[in-house]
């Protein structure tokens, strides 16, 4: 069954790159609505931005959406991952500024709010996107690929010179509560040298050691260290789920990413939708629904983090 949230859920914070205070509210929406963002600080005539792949502006640092009227919203990936990972299919997400609040740099606060608020079953079957043949995009030594699979599985590898990150690989089936248990608490990460460069260029103005894992060579600068030994690759998988959610429906596919980022995953979705014989839309019965991200997820699966 399609689901929405039972009642509005409010989150307050600042944008990671803009440093601008923002309030985000996840609100119930009807069957077939999908996920739509609304900039409540703008004229209502231009404020709605559907969370879809073809509204993405290419950006290496975050996922930014823009509607046909030119309204933009940045850093949507963490809340999109939370909605998909908790099995929310329909929601109106209002934001009173240009960027989604970063909160602690992961999706776990969004997940906690969604699960605490509860779900409303909507009496209509979920439609999923099934990948029928392999689609791949490459950019230098980075690549991303979608292949046929009977559920959504994400495999990712990264390689950084900094010893605190190094080479990391991980593979997870996203069925049921896997996202909530394994990925939702993993924070965005960066190197101190990159933070210095971004701030010199007017970016990462809302970033702190409390909402990102900052590394300098072999040293973790953020208080408390890592939440997972492989937190960096887990966060890349979190980002990938949020970016794949912009397909507009749960996916049945194997996603493989190597050194991939937001823009490459969006390029992969564009390549997929450009090839109508590479996918099909399916209506999920109970067996297929049980394989979707978020099916059956509950509060006991939420990671306990400070």
Structure characteristics:
globular; 2 domains; seven-stranded mixed sheet; alpha+beta; 30% strand; Ribosomal Protein S5, domain 2; 21% helix; lpxc deacetylase, domain 1; 306 residues; 20 strands; five-stranded mixed sheet
Structural notes for this entry:
This protein starts with a strand and ends in a 17-residue tail after the last helix. Helices cover 21% and strands 30% of the residues. The mean pLDDT is 93. It has helices at 77-85, 108-117, 178-183, 192-200, 231-244, 262-273, 286-289; strands at residues 3-5, 9-14, 21-27, 35-39, 48-50, 56-57, 64-66, 72-73, 91-95, 119-121, 127-131, 135-139, 142-148, 153-159, 167-173, 189-191, 213-216, 219-220, 251-258, 279-283. The longest helix is centred in the C-terminal third of the chain and has 14 residues, at 231-244. The chain has 306 residues and is of the alpha+beta class. The chain folds into 2 domains: 3-121, lpxc deacetylase, domain 1 (Ribosomal Protein S5, domain 2); 127-301, lpxc deacetylase, domain 2 (lpxc deacetylase, domain 1, 2-Layer Sandwich), CATH 3.30.1700.
């Amino acid at each position: 069954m399609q689901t929405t949230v039972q009642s509005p859920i409010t989150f307050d914070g600042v944008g990671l790159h803009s440093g601008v205070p923002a309030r985000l509210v996840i609100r119930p929406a009807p069957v077939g609505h999908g996920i739509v963002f609304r900039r409540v600080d703008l004229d209502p005539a231009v404020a709605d931005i559907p969370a879809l792949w073809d509204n993405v502006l290419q950006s290496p640092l975050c996922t930014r959406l823009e509607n046909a009227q030119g309204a933009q919203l940045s850093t949507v990936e963490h809340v999109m991952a939370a909605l998909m990972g908790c099995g929310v299919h329909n929601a109106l997400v209002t934001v009173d500024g240009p960027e989604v609040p970063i909160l602690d740099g992961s999706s776990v606060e969004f997940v906690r709010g969604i699960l605490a608020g509860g779900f409303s079953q909507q009496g209509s079957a979920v439609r999923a996107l099934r990948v029928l043949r392999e689609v791949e995009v490459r950019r230098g030594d980075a690549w991303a690929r979608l292949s046929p699979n009977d559920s959504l599985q994400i495999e990712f590898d990264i390689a950084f010179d900094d010893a605190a990150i190094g080479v990391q690989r991980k593979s997870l089936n996203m069925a049921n509560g896997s996202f909530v248990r394994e990925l939702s608490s993993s924070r965005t990460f960066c190197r101190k040298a990159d933070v210095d460069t971004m701030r010199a260029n007017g970016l990462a103005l809302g970033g702190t050691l409390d909402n990102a894992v900052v590394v300098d060579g072999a040293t973790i600068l953020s208080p408390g260290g890592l939440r997972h030994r492989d937190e960096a690759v887990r966060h890349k998988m979190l980002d990938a789920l949020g970016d794949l959610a912009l397909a507009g429906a749960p996916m049945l596919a194997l996603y493989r990413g190597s050194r991939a980022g937001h823009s490459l995953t969006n390029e992969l979705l564009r390549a997929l939708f450009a090839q109508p014989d590479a996918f099909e839309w399916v209506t999920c019965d109970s067996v297929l629904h049980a394989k979707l991200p978020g099916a059956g997820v509950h509060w006991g699966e939420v990671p306990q983090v400070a």
